[in-house]
TrEMBL record:
Name used for this protein in its record: DUF3060 domain-containing protein
Superkingdom assignment: Bacteria
Keywords: Signal
Organism: Bosea vaviloviae
Signal peptide annotation: 1-19
Pfam family, one: DUF3060
């Protein structure tokens, strides 16, 4: 590729292709952000974060975070005693222990995917399109409801004392 073609290709790329992720690292910080399609990483302990607009991948890692979001490509909650409350996601992963997550699952294409593992997780979902759910580990509770006309999710479970219920 010639230099002029490479330069033209770079100019035509959307600004978000070069955007850095939003990072909140530390202890007991409070922040609000407009995502503008960016990925978000929240780590540390006890942070309170409100995410507005459409986010890329949101990762909540650590202990005692409280996160709210409008819309995200995907959500990963890993750690202990985190609370993530949000709008729409296409994928969700909850791992380790005692996390509480509430979200609406809507696939971008194909099926939305949910993976819950670890112990004592509480996950509350609204299913807004084809969804595959896997629950593993022990004493996890997943409750779900679906929007009008949406079929029940495909659910796979293993482990000990896990509960999956339709509200």
């Amino acid at each position: 590729m010639s230099c002029s073609l490479l330069a033209a290709a770079i100019v035509l790329l959307p600004a978000s292709a070069f955007a850095e992720e939003i990072r909140v690292e530390g202890v007991r910080m409070s922040r609000d952000f407009a995502c503008d399609g960016q990925d978000v990483v929240i780590s540390g302990q006890g942070n309170m974060v409100e995410l507005k607009g459409r986010c890329g991948m949101v990762k909540v890692i650590g202990v005692d975070h409280k996160v709210s979001f409008d819309d995200a490509q995907g959500l990963i909650v890993s750690g202990m005693s985190n609370v993530a409350t949000g709008g729409v996601v296409a994928s969700l992963s909850v791992e380790v222990t005692q996390n509480v997550v509430k979200a609406t699952l809507k696939p971008v294409e194909g099926s939305a995917e949910v993976a819950v593992s670890g112990a004592d997780q509480k996950v509350d979902l609204v299913v807004a399109g084809p969804t595959k759910v896997t629950v593993e580990g022990s004493a996890n509770v997943l409750s779900w409801t679906s929007e009008a006309g949406v079929k029940a999710p495909t659910i796979s479970t293993s482990g000990i004392d896990n509960r999956v219920t339709r509200r």
